[in-house]
Amino acid sequence: MIYLDYAPIYHAAGQAAFGTALAHIILAHQPTTPRRVLDLACGTGAAALVFAAAGATVVGVDASAAMLAIARDQAYQRGLTVEWIEADIRALPDDPHLQPGSFDLCTCLFDSLNHLTEDGDLANVCRSVGKLLRPGGQFIFDLNTLAGFKTWHEYDQVIFDSPHLLVVNRLHFDHDRQRAYGRFVWFRREGERWWRGEETHCERAWSDDEIVAALNAGEMQLKACRTPQWTPPTVDEPRVVYVAER
């Protein structure tokens, strides 16, 4: 399972900063603060905590117990309340905090949906989201694009470098299978010793047609596409934010 051993490394390397920044931008473009927000694949809680700090009632869902443990600790340190649920976003459980039609906004950030690689995965998530959103509610998510994946040549990307932690990601794109791979290797210092860890993450490039079809399966319509800075995307944009409505 990914994001198990890597969870504390992800947190220490500051990778949650993307979710924090995008959550603030999303809120800035909402007419009012959403009353109830569902954050899927919430990770260490970066976006969920932004929404909670803005006054929303927030539910965060993630499959990684290790990531949720950090999220709970972050919420406690900030004096914020979020309901955390450990679950696979492709098959959300029956839970009293996940009532149909009860959410104004659902998010799934930092290319989390790219990690769904089977044909029906994206549609399954969208069906669940469509049931949970109120009419007029929004589903906002970002994806790495095929154009972006095509730049993932064999090279090492330094994610974080400090006297006590080094994180490197070797990027590779398989054109035939339309799959992208990030091989995370980290070295963490404890006293005089360095400890090595490794995880490989696989992502799928979802086409625009597949995205629209999945949204339609959840009775949602694509309303807008933006960059993470909320500007109109170019045709070769490496990452796109999608805004859909129930």
TrEMBL record:
Keyword Transit peptide appears in the UniProt entry: no
Gene3D superfamilies for the chain: S-adenosyl-L-methionine-dependent methyltransferases, Vaccinia Virus protein VP39
InterPro entries xrefs: Methyltransf_25, SAM-dependent_MTases_sf
GO molecular function list: methyltransferase activity
Entry's Gene Ontology BP terms: methylation
Domain of life of the native organism: Bacteria
Every Methyltransferase domain range: 37-137
Keywords carried by this UniProt record: Methyltransferase, S-adenosyl-L-methionine, Transferase
Xref: CDD domains: AdoMet_MTases (cd02440)
The name this protein goes by in its record: Methyltransferase type 11
Provenance organism: Chloroflexus aggregans (strain MD-66 / DSM 9485)
